[in-house]
């Protein structure tokens, strides 16, 4: 059975400082072709039951995934001082809630763990050094200012966009935002909020907006009224010039104006840039020759129908 999810991460290695804190971001996409309820699972490699408190998913672990939908999971690491130095490997897996045995193994990140700061006699000389550094910092602040400029991140991958934002003295807000976009590929940054050129205090958070790819709409019009189907397609955003109409006699006594078939077929998804054909019923076929009943006349662009001012029902009844 094909995997229901894909799981990627912007970085394969997370270095934890002496405080043993850090985070990693995973991007999960529903590739099953159907809406799903997915649950994130954290697995240490090799498995270990004594590390359950070392990592946690921020927000809900169980989320709704539309068809081709993407969710971002941020995992926070908080390792105790007793955690061994060196490398520890964590993997984020995805489970189909409706099929608990269907678990997709995701991508792993390796934690580089440094030694904890030893506790001992407080070095009072540190206060003197800190005072000098503080005074120097105040002077630099007055000389250099406190503003940072939001840089252009449109069209970058998440990893590169993070580097651009942090390089400008800002931080990336958590969680990220995602939107459908007909021109920007999935998992690529559409824009930042606030936008390029905005002035912020250094250290302020910038929200990155990631693309979920083109918005998709299911072809579910067979048996519906043709006028209602046209309204739904146009309101959703399909261009009128991408809609074609044909009229056909019904072989199953479907009423006049009913959608008999579609191209692409029923159940398939389309984007706003796809071309759609609706075959509309002219009423029950009276001919005894089946070929005449199924004959599909030349397709008429819906845009021409709009321009001519002829209604759908008028078009159907024309010879």
Automatic annotation (TrEMBL):
Keyword Membrane: yes
CDD domains membership: PASTA_pknB (cd06577)
InterPro entries: PASTA_dom (IPR005543)
Segments traversing the membrane: 122-144
Keywords in alphabetical order: Membrane, Transmembrane, Transmembrane helix
UniProt keyword Transmembrane helix present: yes
SMART domains, A to Z: PASTA
Coiled coil: none
Name used for this protein in its record: PASTA domain-containing protein
Species of the source: Deinococcus radiopugnans
């Amino acid at each position: 059975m094909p995997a229901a999810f894909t799981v990627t991460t912007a970085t394969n290695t997370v270095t934890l400082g002496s405080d043993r804190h850090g985070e990693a971001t995973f991007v999960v996409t529903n590739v099953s072709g159907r809406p799903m309820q997915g649950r994130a699972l954290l697995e240490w490699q090799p498995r270990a039951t004594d590390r359950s408190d070392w990592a946690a998913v921020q927000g809900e672990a169980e989320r709704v995934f539309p068809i081709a939908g993407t969710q971002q999971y941020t995992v926070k690491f908080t390792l105790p001082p007793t955690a061994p130095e060196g490398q520890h490997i964590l993997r984020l897996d995805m489970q189909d809630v409706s099929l608990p045995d269907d678990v997709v193994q995701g991508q792993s990140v390796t934690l580089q763990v440094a030694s904890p700061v030893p506790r001992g006699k407080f070095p009072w000389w540190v206060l003197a050094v800190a005072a000098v550094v503080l005074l120097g910092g105040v002077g630099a602040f007055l000389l250099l200012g406190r503003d940072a400029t939001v840089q252009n991140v449109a069209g970058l991958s998440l990893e590169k966009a993070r580097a651009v934002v942090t390089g400008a003295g800002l931080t990336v807000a958590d969680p990220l935002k995602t939107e459908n976009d007909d021109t920007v590929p999935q998992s690529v940054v559409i824009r930042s909020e606030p936008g390029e050129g905005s002035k912020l205090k250094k250290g302020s958070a910038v929200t990155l907006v990631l693309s979920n790819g083109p918005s998709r709409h299911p072809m579910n019009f067979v048996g519906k009224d043709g006028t209602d189907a046209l309204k739904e397609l146009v309101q959703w955003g399909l261009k009128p010039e991408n809609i074609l109409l044909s009229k056909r006699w019904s072989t199953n006594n479907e009423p006049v104006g009913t959608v008999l078939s579609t191209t692409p077929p029923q159940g398939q998804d389309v984007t706003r840039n796809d071309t759609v054909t609706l075959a509309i019923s002219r009423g029950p076929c009276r001919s005894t020759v089946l070929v005449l009943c199924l004959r599909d006349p030349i397709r008429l662009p819906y845009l021409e129908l709009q321009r001519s001012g002829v209604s759908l029902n008028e078009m159907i009844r024309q010879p």
